[in-house]
Design a protein that fits this description.
Number of strands: 11
Distance between the termini: 38 Å
CATH topology of the largest domain: Rossmann fold
Strand order of the largest sheet: 3-2-1-4-5-11-10
CATH architecture of the largest domain: 3-Layer(aba) Sandwich
Structural class: alpha/beta
Shape: globular
Number of helices: 6
Number of domains: 2
Helix content: 25-40%
CATH class of the largest domain: Alpha Beta
Length: 246
């Protein structure tokens, strides 16, 4: 089973998520963090269709998106309209330094090995000014019991019904892998036509994230349950990490 192909889900990505509700919930809290730390420029690593990046641009931030998916980048540029933001394929294509890097969702879990994660953090660190921030959000896959199946993300639109399911697999090397199932029931022609994708990602835990960040020039690492920086609880659906570049 392969890591997710974001090209495959790109065409439905904006319909799978209630973006107004999500952005209303997330952007104000992240904005507070950035204001507290003098952030004016940022990289959105794994920017997808550009929804977060475009909101930050509206707030006056200089935003550069990074996404490896050709289709995600194409749709992000469409969403930007007449005022496109810079979007590149890889962190290696960027130069200079920024005040912050954000990475949200399954971008980091799509990196399967410890080596890939460390390499990614190292490149982010090189692109971040001293005292700048990294903000990470991933699902709290630590909370899953082995082989437990969890469903999430139910969303109905006039055209289709979307939902996701995932379960954990603990490998002999004690690395947690997650099987992600994305389902779509298309309402075409008055019938429900099912389709879906299955992919395998890494269920990074707090210790693994902390180790990778510490090894690549970050300190003051804190973990929270949400973007309001509530204290982390093991049952939280999300892990939000904030760290500072040394």
């Amino acid at each position: 089973m392969k890591p997710p192909s974001f090209d495959v889900i790109a065409v439905d990505y904006d319909r799978m998520i209630n973006w107004p509700a999500r952005l209303d919930r997330e952007i104000p809290q992240i904005h507070i963090l950035f204001k507290e730390n003098g952030v004016r420029s940022l990289i959105d690593f794994g920017c997808g269709t550009g929804r977060h990046a475009l909101e930050f641009r509206k707030l006056g931030f200089a935003v550069t998106g990074v996404d490896s998916s050709v289709e995600m980048r194409r749709i992000a540029l469409e969403n930007a309209g007449s005022e496109p933001i810079p979007i590149v394929e890889s962190l290696h294509m960027l130069k200079g330094t920024y005040d912050a890097v954000i990475t949200i969702g399954n971008t980091l879990p799509s990196l399967i090995s410890d080596r890939q994660l460390t390499s990614c953090f190292r490149r982010m660190s090189r692109l971040t000014r001293s005292g700048g921030l990294i903000l990470i959000q991933v699902r709290n896959y630590e909370a899953l019991q082995a082989d437990q199946i969890v469903t999430t993300g139910l969303r109905e639109t006039p055209e289709a019904i979307f939902f996701r399911a995932y379960h954990a697999e603990d490998t002999p090397g004690r690395k947690r892998m997650i099987h992600l199932h994305s389902f779509k029931l298309d309402r075409a022609d008055g019938r429900l036509s099912p389709s879906g994708t299955i992919s395998r990602v890494r269920g990074w835990n707090r210790n693994e994230l902390r180790h990778g960040l510490t090894q690549t020039g970050y300190s003051d690492i804190s973990f929270y349950s949400d973007y309001s920086r509530s204290g982390f609880i093991p049952e939280s659906p999300d892990i939000v990490a904030v760290a500072r570049k040394r």
